[in-house]
Amino acid sequence: MPLSVSDGVSAVLHAAVDGVSVRQNTIADNIANVDTPGYRATSVDFESSLRDALVDGELGGLEISRQATDTPVGANGNNVDLRKEVLAAVQTQFTYQVLTRAITDHHNLTKIAAGAM
Amino acid sequence: MGAFDTLRIAGSGLGMHQTWLDMLGHNLANVNTARRTDQPAFQAQMLIAESQAGGGVRVDGVALSDPEGRLVHDPTHPLADEEGYVRMSELDLASQMSQLIMAQRGYQASVQVTKHAQESYGAALQIGRG
Amino acid sequence: MSVSGIEALGFTPATFSPTLPADVSSARSEAVGSSGFADLVLDGIDRLESVQHRADALSVQAATGDLGAIHDYTIAASEAAVTTQLTVALRNKAVEAFTEIMRMQV
Question: What global pTM score does this model have?
């Protein structure tokens, strides 16, 4: 019987928060290199690995993969789509906040239960 | 620490774009700088940017425009030679202006990233509280 | 005794029958014989130590500048706090129940 809160939901949330962090860094990298000649933008996908793990029923190690995007390349070899990256940055930021909120709420359930005993 | 990578990466974007803006400002201030024909023309600075391993961008170096420049016939100019020519920079004003807009846009985008990073760190610190 | 919502966390609460046992001796053996619950509490204390240790280790990493992500520390710290709360609550309930049973003997 687990007396800590490290259960399945916690593992999923922690894994997702790790994935979102890598995504934030990747977007920051793309934006910093918006004017670097020859730079190719990358994007992060961890949701696929997470979904697969949920279907399998076990979360071993989450695969956070970073791949090249398919945005068109400009004259100087750069393919960063600034508008897309800026929107992604906003969305990722809120996703991170939702997840951290979810972790707190999840812990609070146990706190409330402990207090009610 | 790896925890602040986002800030570091965005900071590099700010640094590179700031340097670019400084160079463009320097170039634009000298767009009408004339030299004697026996001297090199004003050389515009051109930034060489390179992405960094581990994320971010850095200034890899500065290239200078052609010292040949272009000869302009202006006999009334105090620096004009016997034939009335002065050496002007081959600076293209339109190109410099459009680069200025790009540099500002790039700088602003990295500013936004630093704001997002701060909010994320704040959110992480709130875990378990309230 | 079951606390609603806790099952959803994968936490199976121990059940204590509130009814008086017919035989006094069997009541005593039930208190001592429920080593299942004692083990549960001890196991929980071990787990609590490891969770607290993990939070401490991460805080040291933060101090030395080796922390990979802020949320790694704050999640571990929050888990340690909740686990402590839970373990204390369970221990208190266990002591309370034991005391009540001991009172019944008299």
Answer: 0.83
CB contact under 8 A, C79 and A117: no
| CB spacing of A113 vs C83 below 8 angstroms | no
How far is Cα A91 from Cα B34, in angstroms, rounded to an integer?
Answer: 51
CA of B128 vs chain C CAs: smallest distance (Å):
5
The three state secondary structure string of chain C is CCCCCCHHHCCCCCCCCCCCCCCHHHHHHHHHHCHHHHHHHHHHHHHHHHHHHHHHHHHHHHHHCCCCCHHHHHHHHHHHHHHHHHHHHHHHHHHHHHHHHHHHHC
Q: Is the CB of residue B107 less than 8 Å away from at least one CB of chain C?
A: no
Q: Kindly report the backbone phi and psi dihedral angles of residue C29, in degrees, each rounded to the nearest multiple of 5, phi listed first.
A: -65, -25
pLDDT in tens, B69-127: 999 999 999 999 999 999 999 998 999 999 999 999 999 999 999 999 999 999 999 99
Q: Are A25 and B5 in contact (CB under 8 A)?
A: yes
Q: Which residues of B touch A33 (CB under 8 A)?
A: 13, 49, 51, 56-57
Record: contact A3-C86, CB cut-off 8 A = yes
What is the reported pLDDT for B40?
A: 95
- d(CA C71, CA B123) in angstroms, rounded, equals 9
Instruction: Calculate what percentage of chain C has a pLDDT beyond 90.
Output: 35
Kindly indicate the confidence band of residue C34, based on its pLDDT and cuts at 50, 70 and 90.
Answer: low
Predicted confidence at residue C106, as pLDDT, reads 65
Q: What is the pLDDT of residues C70-99, one digit of tens each?
A: 999 999 999 999 999 988 888 898 899 889
pLDDT bin (cut points 50, 70, 90) of residue C10 is: very low
Q: Report how far apart, in Å, the C-alpha atoms of C91 and of each of B100, C46, C98 are.
A: 67, 13, 10
Q: What span, in angstroms and rounded, lies between the C-alpha atoms of B35 and B37?
A: 6
- Quote the CA–CA distance of A74 and B113 in Å, as a whole number: 23
Q: Please indicate whether, in this complex, the C-beta atoms of B127 and A32 are within 8 angstroms of each other.
A: no
The SS3 assignment for B62 reads strand
Q: How far apart are CA A70 and CA A40, in angstroms?
A: 9
Q: Which residues of C touch A115 (CB under 8 A)?
A: 85, 89
